[in-house]
Specification:
35% of the residues lie in helices and 31% in strands. It has 356 residues and is α+β, with helices and mostly antiparallel strands. It has two domains: 3-145 and 308-320, Aminopeptidase (3-Layer(aba) Sandwich), CATH 3.40.630; 153-279 and 339-352, Aminopeptidase (3-Layer(aba) Sandwich), CATH 3.40.630.30.
């Protein structure tokens, strides 16, 4: 365990903050801190190092700050180097939240400085922090993404009645159709529904290996729920559980899912199950402003909360725009939608691994 940097705490000069790179033997302590730190999220967990390295072959640096032998802050980082999409260091690619989770400003500043020094050393285009709250008012930022989070009532029926009338009617439609839900241990039905959905959207698909690693790494905190009608798969969702929160993160449905209101039923079923199991927060996840998924979540009565993705420019002169809404990607999306799904599923992972 090498010390990357050491500095005295300005509030208490007798306390020294040492920054280390996480080693396998540190992962348990790391996760204990993450569970206890109010700023930390599921995406700060140590397991993401294993997932990102093995699924995408990207180099990671999981930094933690220690004071008197105790972890006081963490910063998971991964480097992506792509001919198509540039070279950057971020916290954390493939995750909606990231940045520093720390117990004090001194620890936060020390970890951020270590990240900037690493970004300079790697000669990346930029350093990206995916913060839930603004941290650096003087850094460039994107006003592209929002998140949707809502407190669940302990009463299941109250949660249903809080859904706006038109959306609630869609949920009841799925219930009336007699749709059923299963909890799966393997990813096969999930991947079928997910890959069908993203192909229609013209979006490259993640590999099966990625989802298998997520399930293996996070075990009971990574759940697969599939909705079916008479045994025919209609929709499926992969959800993460963290503290008292449930996060439906990846999901999709077949062409037939719309006819049965399967996606509407699926998210209600997840909400209902989570409420039964004592979870307090439903995190509907990230969406780009003014998109279909943004409108869908608004229809459930969730309020959009801005995400603060902040950038420290290193070699780049401006923030990149890799969003599918970028007009230069329009032709690519239209072409992708026309590919046979088997071909898209084969090519997609080679592209999406560089997007982060």
């Amino acid at each position: 365990m090498s010390v990357l940097a050491e500095v005295a705490d300005t509030e208490n000069p007798s306390v020294h903050v040492a920054v280390h790179e996480m080693q396998p033997e540190d992962s348990e302590r790391w996760d204990q801190f993450v569970l206890s730190c109010p700023e930390a999220t599921f995406f700060h967990r140590a397991g993401w190092k294993n997932v990102i390295e093995r699924a995408f072959n990207h180099k990671t640096w999981f930094l933690y700050a220690e004071c008197n032998g105790e972890i006081q802050g963490v910063l998971p980082l991964a480097e992506i180097k792509s001919f198509l999409f540039g070279h950057f260091l971020g916290s954390l690619p493939f995750c909606v939240y990231g940045g520093v989770a720390a117990c004090s400003d001194t620890v936060r500043e020390r970890l951020e400085l270590a990240a900037i020094e690493l970004a300079d050393k790697l000669k990346v285009d930029y350093l990206e922090f995916r913060n839930m709250k603004p941290v650096h008012q003087d850094w460039p930022t994107k006003d592209l993404y929002v998140t949707f989070r809502k407190t669940l009532d302990a009463d299941i029926e109250k949660n249903l009645l809080e859904i706006p009338r038109k959306q609630r009617a869609m949920v009841r439609k799925g219930i009336k159709f007699g749709l059923k839900s299963d909890i799966d241990e393997d990813i096969e039905r999930f991947f079928f529904a997910y890959s069908s959905s993203v192909h229609r959207l013209g979006t490259p698909v993640f590999s099966k290996k990625y989802f298998q690693l997520l399930k293996q790494t996070f075990a009971q905190d990574c759940e697969l729920m599939t909705i079916h009608k008479n045994g025919v798969t209609l929709s499926s969702v992969m959800s993460f559980y963290f503290r008292n929160e449930v996060l439906p993160y990846y999901g999709g449905g077949t062409v037939e899912a719309r006819n049965w209101a399967a996606s509407d039923f699926m998210y209600w079923e997840l909400m209902r199950r989570s409420c039964e199991n004592g979870y307090k927060t439903f995190d509907f996840g990230r969406s780009k402003r003014d998109t279909g998924s943004y409108s869908f979540k608004k229809n459930w009565g969730f309020e959009a909360q801005p995400l603060h993705y902040e950038y420290k420019l290193i070699k780049a002169s401006h923030i990149p725009n890799h969003s599918p809404s970028n007009p230069k990607y329009k032709y690519f999306i239209q072409t992708w939608q026309k590919l046979p799904r088997s071909v898209a599923n084969w090519i997609g992972p080679f592209i999406v691994k560089s997007l982060g």
